[in-house]
Design a protein that fits this description.
The structure is a single chain. The protein is an alpha/beta fold. It folds into two domains: 189 residues, Rossmann fold; 168 residues, Glycogen Phosphorylase B (Rossmann fold). The protein has 14 helices and 13 strands.
């Protein structure tokens, strides 16, 4: 089977998405069912060497309807084109597969965002819906996402496959971040700093945590993107109003080694997010054996299972209680929790992700083209 992977992006690629490609693409190339694999990115976007040689399309190609990209795809004649970013380019009769991996625009397009970002999220949701509707097949990265597509968008369940992301079998080597070298016991959370992150739960829980553990630090890993600096400022102002600013360490973006260090040494890893599909940090925390306190919002229980302790979103008092309970566990129970987390992480290998992805692409490639697929699309033009 000849596969083309088209990474439709107007800018760079997120850290989580890069991890996805770096882990998936080499395994796809090794799959005996794959005879040829071409990976496309727009000019100016770089991928790590593990992804192999790339095919490019001009930066301005999208504004004209992607004629260069579509022309190259037509000449290569792949059996299927895979769009992992829930956007779609008309490929004529070539079967297409899209993947839905970002639930924020679909669930909380407003959710504390500024009006510009809210409008962008509405547009992203519309584009994703249209792409799923037009694609030959859709990959959802969790059962939760699959249910959303079927129940909210009314797409046929037979068209939607579920493929989890994976996590590295061996965690990255650890290195202490400079900002944490003087920190003692700490609670850790990580991810992009955006309104959908729900950091206010943890900040509001911090006064109660400090009453029980006065020397505790709350470490917030990750950075705000260009449209989320206002949210970051609001969270820092909230910490000041709560009287806990001194206890919170904002680390900014952490490297893989620094994340590994924090996962392995935190008293608890806290997940407060309001909108996730298949959170990379959840799988990484499990792989390092971190004790987890998570919001009960889907899809978190789908990934953590019985290894985590849960609290209801927006219930900061409940979050503080759960963290305090985990920190009070005797060592035998804590060791058992760490081992259980690592065992859970082992259920999400990248090789399974690659194998199931190829299976989904093969299902799309073998489908009988619809009548409208066989006909070349024409535009209405005045003579």
């Amino acid at each position: 089977m000849k596969i083309a992977i088209v990474n439709l992006t107007s800018g760079g690629l997120s850290g989580g998405y890069l991890k996805y490609l770096v882990n998936l693409v080499p395994l796809l190339r090794q799959d005996p069912r794959v005879t040829k694999l071409d990976v496309f990115v727009p000019e100016g976007v770089l991928l790590p060497a593990q992804c192999g040689s790339l095919r490019l399309w001009p930066k301005r190609d999208g504004s004209a309807g992607f004629p260069a990209l579509r022309g190259t795809l037509a000449s290569l004649a792949p059996d299927v084109v895979f769009f992992p970013t829930a956007r779609l380019v008309d490929c004529g009769a070539i079967p297409t597969v899209v993947m839905v991996r970002n639930m924020e625009p679909l669930l909380v397009p407003f959710g504390g965002n500024g009006w510009r970002e809210s409008l962008r999220n509405l547009a992203r949701a519309r584009v994703a819906h249209r792409a799923c509707d037009r694609a030959s097949r859709v990959i959802a990265v969790s059962d939760y996402v699959r249910r959303f597509i079927v129940e909210r968008w009314r797409l046929p369940s037979a068209k939607i496959g579920r493929v989890y992301h994976g996590v590295a079998a061996e965690p990255a080597a650890a290195a202490a971040p400079a900002s944490l070298q003087q920190v003692g016991r700490f609670v850790f959370t990580a991810g992009s700093i955006r309104p959908a992150r729900g950091l206010e739960d943890l900040i509001r829980a911090t006064p109660a945590l400090l009453r029980a553990h006065p020397d505790l630090a709350v470490v917030i890993g990750g950075k705000a993107d260009a449209v989320s600096h206002d949210y970051e400022a609001r969270m820092q102002h909230l910490a000041a109003r709560q009287g806990v600013a001194r206890a919170i360490v904002w680390t900014g973006q952490l490297s893989s080694a620094e994340m590994a260090w924090a996962y392995g040494r935190c008293a608890a890893f806290v997940v407060t997010s309001r909108a996730e599909a298949c959170p990379n940090v959840a799988l990484e925390a499990l792989s390092h054996g971190a004790p987890v306190v998570s919001t009960s919002q889907d899809p978190m229980p789908e990934f953590f299972g019985g290894t985590a302790t849960y609290y209801r979103p927006e219930h900061a008092d409940e979050l503080a209680l759960r963290v305090t309970q985990i920190m009070a566990e005797p060592e035998p129970a804590a060791a058992a929790r760490r081992e259980s987390a690592r065992a859970r992480a082992a259920e999400f290998p990248w090789r399974r992700t690659a194998d199931e992805t190829v299976t989904e692409l093969d299902l799309a490639a073998k489908r009988e083209p619809r009548t409208e697929d066989r006909k070349p699309r024409t535009e209405n033009r005045k003579p």
